C-alpha cells in the first residue's frame, strides 16, 4: 500500500486508529490499485475528536490574532516547501494529473493559509458606536468547534479553504474528508502541528455518509461547512437546522457560460475548455452550459473540436498528461450514462463520447466530450454531470440568453465572453449566480469571495467575507450615567 498513512485519524496532535470502524479503501483512480486502507470513525472517535477540539479552542481563541496568523503562515510555507510531495499525494488521492496538482492544489491551500494568517490581525476588529453619553462596542468572536466536510475533487484545497478562516478566527475544527479522498487532509493536520498549532486545534477523522451526521448532530459542534452535492446539502442543512447550527453550503452547479459573437473566439474556446475539462470536468463551478451566439457557432465548434482532440489523456504522474481519470468507476458509469442520454435525446456529438482506447483498463477514464445543438430541456443541459462533458447551446439575442441561463435551480457561477464592456456588466448584473467571470472563467484566487446562490448554497469561502461565516458579533452596551427607572 504505497500511500498508507500511520493511522486513519489525526486527533489531538497524533495519529489515532480504531479498527472497529468500517473499512475505507483508498483507490488510485488511474489504475484501480488500493493504495491505502483506513477505517471510518466510530462514535467514540467522533467524540474524541470533538472533545479535543473543544479543549484546544479555548487556548487558541485566547491567543492574539497575530500569533494565530503567524502559525497559519508558517503552515503555508511548509506546504509550499513540500509542494511536490503533497501534489503527488493529491494525484494518488484523486487521479488528477500532476501537471494540475503541482500548480493548483497544495499551492491554493497554502494561499488560503497565508491569506487568512495575514488578515487575522486586522480583519477581526470590532467597532465603536457612539450613543451620546453612552456608547457600545462590538467584538467579532469565534463560534467554537466547527466541522468541515469535504468533497473529493479538491481535497487539499477544500480542507484549507475551511480550516484557514476557521482557525484564523479562533475556532477549532474537525475535518472529515470525502471517503473517496482520505489522504491529503491528514498531511495538512501534521503540517499545522509542525507549524506550531496547539494539539487539537485541527483534527481529521475519516468517514462516509454514515459518519457525517454524527458530526453534524454533535452537541458540541457550533458550525458545519459542507462542500458537496445539493442532495447532501439539503440533508446536512436540515440536520443542522434541528440544532440551529451555523452552516456554509458549497454545493453543485450547472453554470452558464455565454459567448457573444463579438468575443475573442480563441479566448472563449480556451475558457470553455478550462471550464469543462480541468480536473476531468469535476469542478463545481464549471460552465457546463456553453451558450454560443448563432453567427459564430460553426467557427466556435470547429476550433473547440480541434483543440479538444489534442488533449493528452493518460498516466496522471506523467508531466505531459493533461487529463486524468474520473474519481471512481461509479462516477465513470454515471458520466457515460449521461453521454448516452445526450445521444438519445438528440444532441449532436462533436467529439469524444466514450472511453479512450490507449489507457489502463482499470482506470476510470472518459474522453473529453462535446455536444452541440443541445436544447434547454435535455437531461444533459439540466443536471450536473461532474465529468468532462460540455454542452453547447445556440442563442440569438441577449435578453433570450439571460432568461435561459437563469432557468435552472442552481446558481453557483456564470461567465460572459464579449468585447462590449457595457454589455458584459449589464449581463452579469442580471445573471443569478454567486461567482461570475467576464472574459475568463473559473479563476478563484483567495482574495475574492466564492460561493453560490439558489440551490448551489449559501455562505462564502475565501476573502475577508469568509471570516464572517466563522464568527459572530457580540455587542456590548456601556452605560455611562445613572440608571433612570420609571418605577
Ligand atoms: P457528496 O455530496 O456525495 O459528498 C460530500 C461530502 O458529504 C462527503 O464527505 C460525504 O461523505 C459527506 N456526506 C454525505 N452524506 C452526508 C450526510 N448525510 N451528512 C453529512 N455528511 C455527508 O459530494 P461529492 O460527490 O463528494 O462531491 C461532488 C459534489 O460536490 C458535486 O455536486 C459538486 O458540484 C460539489 N462541489 C461543490 C463545490 C463548491 O464549492 N460549491 C466544490 C466542489 C464540489
Describe the structure.
- This protein is 38% helix and 21% strand.
- The chain is α/β, with parallel strands linked by helices.
- The longest helix has 20 residues, at 43-62.
- The relative contact order is 0.14.
- Nicotinamide-adenine-dinucleotide is lined by residues 149-153, 176, 178-179, 208-209, 212-213, 216, 227-229, 232, 235-236, 250-253, 284, 384, 386, 412, 452, 457.
SSE topology sketch:
Layout: E1 9-11, E2 14-16, E3 23-27, E4 34-39, H1 43-62, H2 65-81, H3 83-94, H4 98-104, H5 106-123, E5 128-131, E6 134-142, E7 145-149, H6 155-168, E8 172-176, H7 184-194, E9 202-204, H8 212-216, E10 223-227, H9 230-241, E11 246-250, E12 256-259, H10 265-277, E13 289-293, H11 297-308, H12 329-344, E14 348-351, E15 369-372, H13 379-382, E16 389-395, H14 398-406, E17 410-411, E18 413-417, H15 421-430, E19 435-438, E20 453-454, E21 457-458, H16 465-468, E22 471-478
Helix pairs in contact: 2-5, 2-7, 3-4, 4-5, 5-6, 10-11
The protein binds nicotinamide-adenine-dinucleotide.
| Amount of beta strand | 15-25%
Q: What would you call the structural class?
A: alpha/beta
Total helices: the number is 16
How are strands sequenced across the largest beta sheet? 14-15-16-13-12-18-19
The best one-word shape is globular
Gyration radius, in Å:
24 Å
Helix content: 25-40%
- The termini sit apart by 77 Å
Low-confidence stretches: none
Pfam family, one: Aldedh
Catalytic activity: betaine aldehyde + NAD(+) + H2O = glycine betaine + NADH + 2 H(+)
InterPro entries: Ald_DH/histidinol_DH, Ald_DH_C, Ald_DH_CS_CYS, Ald_DH_CS_GLU, Ald_DH_N, Aldehyde_DH_dom, BADH
Binding site for K(+) 2: 244, 454, 457
Amino acid at each position: 500500500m504505497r500511500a498508507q498513512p500511520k493511522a486513519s485519524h489525526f486527533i489531538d496532535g497524533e495519529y489515532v486508529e480504531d479498527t472497529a470502524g468500517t473499512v475505507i479503501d483508498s483507490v488510485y483512480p488511474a489504475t484501480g490499485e488500493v493504495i491505502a486502507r483506513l477505517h471510518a470513525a466510530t462514535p467514540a472517535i467522533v467524540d474524541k475528536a470533538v472533545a479535543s477540539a473543544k479543549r484546544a479552542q479555548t487556548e487558541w481563541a485566547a491567543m492574539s490574532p497575530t500569533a494565530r496568523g503567524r502559525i497559519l503562515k508558517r503552515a503555508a510555507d511548509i506546504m509550499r516547501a513540500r509542494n511536490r510531495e503533497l501534489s503527488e499525494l493529491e494525484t494518488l488521492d484523486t487521479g488528477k494529473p500532476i501537471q494540475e496538482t503541482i500548480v493548483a492544489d497544495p499551492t491554493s491551500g497554502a494561499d488560503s493559509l497565508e491569506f487568512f494568517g495575514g488578515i487575522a490581525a486586522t480583519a477581526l476588529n470590532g467597532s465603536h458606536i457612539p450613543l451620546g453619553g453612552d456608547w457600545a462596542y462590538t467584538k467579532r468572536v469565534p463560534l467554537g468547534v466547527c466541522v468541515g466536510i469535504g468533497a473529493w475533487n479538491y481535497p487539499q484545497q477544500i480542507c484549507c479553504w475551511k480550516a484557514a478562516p476557521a482557525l484564523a478566527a479562533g475556532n477549532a475544527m474537525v475535518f472529515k474528508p470525502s471517503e473517496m479522498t482520505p489522504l491529503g487532509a491528514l498531511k495538512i493536520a501534521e503540517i499545522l502541528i509542525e507549524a506550531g498549532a496547539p494539539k487539537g486545534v485541527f483534527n481529521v477523522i475519516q468517514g462516509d455518509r454514515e459518519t457525517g451526521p454524527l458530526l453534524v448532530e454533535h452537541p458540541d459542534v457550533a458550525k458545519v461547512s459542507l462542500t458537496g452535492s445539493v442532495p447532501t446539502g439539503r440533508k446536512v442543512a436540515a440536520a443542522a437546522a434541528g440544532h440551529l447550527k451555523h452552516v456554509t453550503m458549497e454545493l453543485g452547479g450547472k453554470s452558464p457560460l455565454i459567448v457573444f459573437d463579438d468575443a475573442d473566439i480563441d479566448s472563449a474556446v480556451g475558457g470553455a475548455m478550462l471550464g469543462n475539462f480541468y480536473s476531468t470536468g469535476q469542478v463545481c463551478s464549471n460552465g457546463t452550459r456553453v451558450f454560443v451566439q448563432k453567427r459564430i457557432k460553426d467557427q466556435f465548434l470547429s476550433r473547440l473540436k480541434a483543440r479538444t482532440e489534442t488533449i493528452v489523456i493518460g498516466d496522471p504522474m506523467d508531466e505531459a498528461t493533461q487529463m486524468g481519470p474520473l474519481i471512481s468507476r461509479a462516477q465513470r458509469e454515471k458520466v457515460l450514462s449521461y453521454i448516452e442520454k445526450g445521444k438519445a435525446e438528440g444532441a449532436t456529438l462533436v467529439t469524444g463520447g466514450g472511453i479512450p482506447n490507449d489507457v489502463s483498463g482499470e482506470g476510470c477514464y472518459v474522453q473529453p466530450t462535446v455536444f452541440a445543438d443541445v436544447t434547454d430541456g435535455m437531461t444533459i443541459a439540466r443536471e450536473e454531470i461532474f465529468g468532462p462533458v460540455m454542452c453547447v447551446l445556440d442563442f440569438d439575442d441577449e435578453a433570450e440568453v439571460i432568461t435561459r441561463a437563469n432557468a435552472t435551480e442552481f446558481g453557483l457561477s456564470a461567465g460572459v465572453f464579449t468585447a462590449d464592456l457595457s454589455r458584459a456588466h449589464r449581463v452579469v448584473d442580471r445573471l443569478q449566480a454567486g461567482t461570475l467571470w467576464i472574459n475568463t472563467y473559473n479563476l478563484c484566487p483567495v482574495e475574492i469571495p466564492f460561493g453560490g446562490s439558489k440551490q448551489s448554497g449559501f455562505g462564502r469561502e475565501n476573502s475577508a467575507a469568509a471570516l464572517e461565516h466563522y464568527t459572530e458579533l457580540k455587542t456590548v452596551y456601556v452605560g455611562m450615567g445613572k440608571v433612570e427607572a420609571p418605577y
